[in-house]
Amino acid sequence: MKYTGIMKEQLQTLQTDFSSALANIITQEALKELESEYLGKKWKLKAILAGVKDLSIEEKKTIGVAANTMKNEFIEALVNKAREIEDAYFNEIEAKEAIDVTIGYPSDNLGHKHPISHTSELLEDIFISLGFKIEDGPQVEDELHNFDKLNIPHNHPARDVWDTFWISDEVNKDKDIGERLLLRTHTSPVQIRTMMSQELPIKIIVPGRVFRYEQEDARHTCNFYQLEGLVVGEGVTFGDLKWTLDTVMKQLLGEKTELRFRPSIFPFTEPSAEVDVSCQICSGTGKVKWKKCSMCSATGWVELLGSGMVHPTVLEGCWIDSKKYSGFAFGMGIDRIAAQRFWVSSSRMFYQNKLKLNEQF
Ligand SMILES: [Zn+2]
Question: What is the mean pLDDT of residues 94-112?
Answer without folding.
Answer: 75
